[in-house]
Amino acid sequence: MSELLDRRAIRLDEKAGSKEEAIRLTGETLVEIGAVRPGYVETMLAREKSISTYVGEGVAIPHGTLGGKELVVRDALAVLRFPAGVDWDGERVSVCVGIAAAGDGHVELLAALAEVLLDEDQARELREATEPETVESLLSQIHEDSECKIQEDSE
Questions:
Q1: 52: CATH
Q2: What are the phi and psi torsion angles at 51 (to 5°)?
Q3: Is 63 a catalytic residue?
Q4: What's the CA gap between 149 and 138, in Å, rounded?
Q5: pTM of the predicted protein model
Q6: Which residues have CB under 8 Å from 32's CB, separation 6+?
Q7: The total number of structural domains that make up the chain
Q8: Enclosing domain of residue 104
Q9: I need a surface site. Which of 60, 64, 76, 115 has the fewest CB within 10 A?
Q10: Which helix (H) or strand (E) holds 133?
Q11: In this predicted model, what pLDDT tens digit does every residue of 24-35 receive, in sequence order?
Q12: Bridge partner residues of 60 (DSSP)
């Protein structure tokens, strides 16, 4: 998990006036940690225009388009929390999990993240996290669960 989530990419007290601003902040975080080139942010905004990245439980998972994969330097996540919330086409988003992925490795992570969001307690813990360690712990569980599932499926 540590290779995907740089502690510098966990920001738990952000403010955004719109979903576009929240996506931009999330993408810029991925740029700042060296995971993507600056143009990737525009592909994240383009993705949102074609389909909403809101996944429920106050969480959105902004990520780039297929064309944006060439701008990914390394696979990474960014977790930004917006305590005041952001209007996401009528839904209130308080957490953005930004994804940079050059290949398909993020698919299992997305499936595991969806499982966490189905657990009301874990989803609330993610939305209310005020310490980076909480986010790391939750996402480490996700990553371990998805690795176990991948190993079971391959046996």
A1: 3.40.930.10
A2: -160, 140
A3: yes
A4: 17
A5: 0.86
A6: 8, 9
A7: 1
A8: 7-154
A9: 115
A10: helix 132-154
A11: 999 999 999 999
A12: 54, 96
What are the Cα distances from residue 81, in Å, to 20, 91, 113, 136, 144?
15, 15, 16, 13, 23
Q: How far apart are CA 98 and CA 23, in angstroms?
A: 8
At residue 14, the 3 state secondary structure works out as coil
Q: Is residue 108 part of a domain?
A: yes
Q: Which of 19, 47, 63, 106 is catalytic?
A: 63
Which pLDDT tens digit goes with each residue over 65-91?
999 999 999 989 999 999 999 999 999
Question: Is residue 1 situated within a structural domain?
Answer: no
Q: Answer yes or no: is 27 within a domain.
A: yes
Among 52, 107, 44, smallest CA distance to 72 is for 44
Burial of 104 (0-12, 13-18, 19+ CB in 10 A): exposed
CB 101 within 8 A of CB 69: yes
**Local structure of 16: helix, strand or coil:** coil
Q: Which residue type occupies 22?
A: A
Q: Is 66 exposed, middle or buried (0-12, 13-18, 19+ CB in 10 A)?
A: exposed
Residue 8 CA to residue 11 CA, distance in Å, equals 7
Residue 116 lies inside a defined structural domain of this protein: yes
